[in-house]
Amino acid sequence: xxxxxxxxxxxxxxxxxxxLVLDQDRMQQNIARMRTSLARFNVAxxxxxxxxxxxxxxxxxxxQVSGPITVSTLKEAEYFxxxxxxxxxxxxxxxxxxxxxxxxxxxxxVRLTLILDSxxxxxxxxxxxxxxxxxxxxxxxxxxxxxRSGVVPDSPELLEIxxxxxxxxxxxxxxxxxxxxxxxxxxxxxxxxxxxxxRDAAVGCAERLRAAGIVCPAVSIGSxxxxxxxxxxxxxxxxxxxxxxxxxxxxxxxGVCRQQDIALSVLTxxxxxxxxxxxxxxxxxxxxxxxxxxxxxxxxxxxxxLVCDLGGELLPDLLMVDANQEHGVIAHRSGDPAQTPDLxxxxxxxxxxxxxxxxxxxxxxxxxxxxxxxxxxEVWERFRGW
Length: 386
Description:
CATH architecture of the largest domain: Alpha-Beta Barrel
CATH superfamily of the largest domain: Alanine racemase
Shape: elongated
CATH class of the largest domain: Alpha Beta
Helix content: 25-40%
Largest sheet: 8 strands, parallel
Strand content: 15-25%
Number of strands: 17
């Protein structure tokens, strides 16, 4: 979006809009809450950095300069490795076209763990390992909820993949799953049940492999909802989660966080009105917010985002109801034009996003503030692309 580094601002009110704002206090509160939740269990934490794509946020999440992380692109792996992160899980199924990139990273000293879910890909990886005289660290992806990819837990292919890797000179590091269907739950008890289902599927697969004489050291699970509300992580080695660090309206709709916990927002300016329609027009459209409409599947649809004042306080029943590429439309939830406040042209607002990962991806940097101030403390760069 706009390059605010050309005109450094000291306060949010001095920024050209749209711009991405990160409330550091809320972020630290969210991190502390996840750490407290996981402290009940004997598990390692491997945060997913795809949400933030930021060195500073990753270090804040870990509470240290480096540590184990999860990435969703090899570019993320490369970027974080260049900044001292060497224990990296690439949590998207590997394909042959990425083998050489993986090998380059490993030869640079990165312990990069891969995932796969087919015998075909296990065989291809074994072939590549023999050609390059390399032993890859590999986890088998498990489908614990029918949400996405992965081996069905009772499938014969699980053992076939395990044997292929073991006899093919590769290191089977464990099994991995992601309970993405937790995003479709409608209550905290349903999330707890999903967390148990996630745990049972992954641990059960590890036990099947071990019973067949196939070494399976680790069990990796995780989504923000299940990580927050799991009651039982027996047999689990590590937990992964990402969006918790900022929170968003989808998470708030699930009860995973509150709207007032959301740390990320988009700063925008009122540029006009359609008073007869009850519309306030802003300069933040879907290019600033993303097209993600995740709350449309929840009991309360939040449009493209909820509206806050410049200080980050929610304005009751005001939401971004529509978006063009560079124009946002704000209106009262009721649709009654008389209920829309008369905000002057030039007024600055902050919009809370439906999906923090998608909104963050539209921007090149975070303007970091504290909860009680609109002073810009720091500007943190983030990166984009694949």
